[in-house]
Amino acid sequence: MLRTLGAQIKEFKKDSVLTPVFMIGEVIMETIIPLLMASIIDNGVNGNNGSGDMNHIYLIGFLMIVVALASLTFGILGGRYGSRASAGFARNLRRAMYERIQTFSFSNIDKFSTSGLVTRLTTDVTNMQNAYQMILRMCMRAPATLICAMFMSFVISPRLASVYLVAVIFLGCVLGLIVSRAMKHFTQAFPKYDALNESVQENVSAIRVVKAYVREEHEIRKFKTASNNIYKIFCKAEGIVAWNGPVMNLTVYTCILLISWMGAHLIVQDTLKTGQLMNMLTYCMNILMSLMMLSMIFVMVTMSAASAKRICEVLEEKPDLTNPAEPVREVKDGSIVFDHVSFRYKKDAEGAVLKDIHLNIKSGETIGIIGGTGSAKSSLVNLVSRLYDVSEGQLLVGGVNVKDYDMEVLRNQVAVVLQNNVLFSGTILDNLRWGNKEATLEECRHACELACADEFIQKMPQGYETFIEQGGSNVSGGQKQRLCIARALMKKPRVLILDDSTSAVDTATDARIRQAFAQAIPGTTKLIIAQRISSVEHADRIIVMHEGQVDGVGTHEELLAGNAIYREVYDAQMSGSGDFDEKGGM
Asked: Nearest Cα to 521, choosing from 364, 381, 363?
């Protein structure tokens, strides 16, 4: 874990080294100041047999100013370099995690919830940033202060310094107990953040449904529950940590009383000077405050340890899909062969989602795929663009196993319009150019004409410069689907997959889109998943899926004549009483 996190320091190594150097320099200067103060009292104020020595006072006073300025300079530089190192470390962590997430396959992403990834990129990274800055600054300053002050105390008076030693041991034990008790509560807090973020994300993304069903109160209660869970955990943890203050104050005042009492006796016995006693009191505060800082460090490190583990889970997650050593960089055509393919979402799953699929699709064919919910239609087409890998058998595109392709090359030639259509914030042109970033306005317009999107875009006040809100919230479902189809066409793919992507489009527009495809991209292999038989009845062939298996393959007429499921659902749809999810269907 440390190696994984340490690799993200990168260009901030210099800052990470200079920060503790300056912090140690600041501690040394702060250790010298009490010695100079003692010299002023013992040799300046009480010098020359009590008459005072102004020259000594002026000289040592000047040195104190120089040392104080040096301490201030070291502190400022330590803070500056520490802030830059910790902020840079956090930036690199976020960037590394985000880049790692981009390499994940769907199976990798399925291991982490969306809210969990958001928490890791925000809350967990912020905790790591704070912890790293504290480690660079306080974690060097506190031990250095403790060691220097303890050393100087034993040099001045071993007898009085023994009081500090007992106090340090006592405080160390108490603070260790406090931190260990608080640790288990802090480690429980961060998974609760996932639940909180999930509640917010789900509510905001589905706000229209929430309002349509008047479920605002329910969502508020759910959010309050998630928020209260975090509140309760932190109250328990902070309640334990709060004992730091009283224990520290008790120890400090006890040490001051003991040192003052013992020191007064030593001064009367003429074995200790007044300035040295002041030194001892100053070092007392330094030692005990350094222990307080160490306890804060332990708490922060405890909190960040859970965050560090969660961050490393993302950084160390190995993508399930990788490029071969010498990948194929050209897809010759759109032919697709499923050679006895079986597929499981998880390797240890008992049952296969797809079972022994054997299909041979010619380049340029239009293939309809129909079946009930859960028949694995989407799973079948997801394998074509290698969003998942087959579990058994092999899948060929353009005569080459998809595992032998460079994934970017393959996915550029296999355009997919998924069930859940997603548009990004930006203009319509910005969204269309996801398919081809160099596309001209005319190319974008032509793709939109094929997808029957140009007609509604032209009616918008700003046309193709119309701004699309996040998630496409300012366009209808049918308009969103047509824009996504146009975006896929911009890639000029060898294979075009439409995963139930015209479900929100009226039948007349659906027919026009299919006709445009047949005329404009005859060489592109088209896989069309649909629930309506009318959307696929003119396809070259239709595949009927049932419980992860191919139940039938043929033309519309052949399936009507020879496939009971297809014929039954066709009759139900023609009579307006059902589809593939109704009784009598699949």
From this structure: 364
Q: What is the pLDDT of residues 452-506, one digit of tens each?
A: 999 899 988 899 999 988 777 788 888 888 898 899 888 889 999 988 877 767 7
Query: Can you give the C-alpha Rg of the chain in angstroms?
Result: 36
CA distances from 290 to 86, 286, 371, 570 (A): 22, 6, 69, 80
What is the rounded end-to-end Cα distance, in angstroms, of the chain? 49
**Tens-digit pLDDT profile for residues 134-168:** 888 887 788 888 788 778 878 888 888 788 788 87
DSSP character at residue 121: I
Angle at 259 between CA 254 and CA 260, to 5 degrees: 100
CB atoms under 10 Å from CB of 577, counted, come to 11
Can you tell me the distance from the alpha carbon of 176 to that of 83, in angstroms, rounded to the nearest whole number? Answer: 28
Q: At residue 6, what is the residue type?
A: G
- Judged by DSSP in three states, 221 sits in helix
472's CB contacts (< 8 A; 6+ apart) are: 421, 422, 423, 480, 483
The residues near 263 (Cβ < 8 Å, ≥ 6 apart) are: 157, 160, 272, 277, 280
With vertex at residue 500, the alpha carbon angle to CA 458 and CA 460, rounded to the nearest 5 degrees, is: 10
Which tokens go with 222? 């759910």
Percent of the chain residues topping a pLDDT of 90: 25
Residue 521 phi, psi dihedral angles, 5° rounding? -130, 60
SS3 77: helix
Give me the half-sphere count of Cα atoms (radius 13 Å) on the Cβ side of residue 168.
Answer: 20
